[in-house]
Amino acid sequence: MLIAFNKPFGVVCKFSPEPGKKTLADFIGVKDVYPAGRLDTDSEGLLLLTDDGVLQTRVTEPDHKLPKVYWAQVEGTPTDAAVEKLRHGVNLGDFTTKPADARLIDEPEDLWPRDPPIRYRAKIPTAWIELTLREGKNRQVRRMTAKVGFPTLRLVRAAIGKIGVKDFALGAWREIDADAPWSG
Q1: Which residues are part of the catalytic machinery?
Q2: How large is the C-alpha radius of gyration of the chain?
């Protein structure tokens, strides 16, 4: 079984209770499924869950080269040089990221409002970067954008492989074909 879930901001990626916070159990009533990878509490977007350990490994392991697309709203207006650094890999101290696809984008169409909204600062503009990674280290996108001088204010995982959040309601989930991330 493979489930796609559009995780809202503030939801903890576990089923066990977390005092004062919503968890996956508040949205998904299916027993014995677990996240295939994580999505931080302060990040939003696509999360895949499965009851199959082999499938979980196939989704999460970089050896399978399943691309993960993120939309990062960043503070400031990134320069071409900053975006180029993201493309070539960023030395984060404890590791250097693998090359990534990176480009500036307009705010994604039909993106749901975040609750609560990001902080607004009249004198500091924001911009959106789309990053496609084939690895997934702890808080990697946030660390990458901060390292090149443009801290992430909002982070949305837009797609894993061929599965995306477009036309997928926030907080909604559905069972999908186990081959869906790799096929048409």
Answers
A1: 40
A2: 16
pLDDT tens track for 146-176: 999 999 999 999 999 999 998 789 999 999 9
Q: How far is CA 15 from CA 32, 42, 48, 56, 91, in A?
A: 10, 17, 14, 17, 34
Model pLDDT for residues 93-129, shown as the tens digit of each residue: 999 999 999 999 999 988 999 999 998 888 899 999 9
Using CA atoms, how far residue 33 sits from 14, 81, 125, in Å, is 10, 42, 41
Given a contact cutoff of 8 angstroms between Cβ atoms, the answer to whether 74 and 124 are in contact is no
d(CA 98, CA 6): 26
**What's this model's pTM, rounded to 2 decimal places?**
0.94
Class of the 2-176 domain? alpha beta
How is the chain split into domains, by residue range? 2-176
The amino acid occupying position 110 is: D
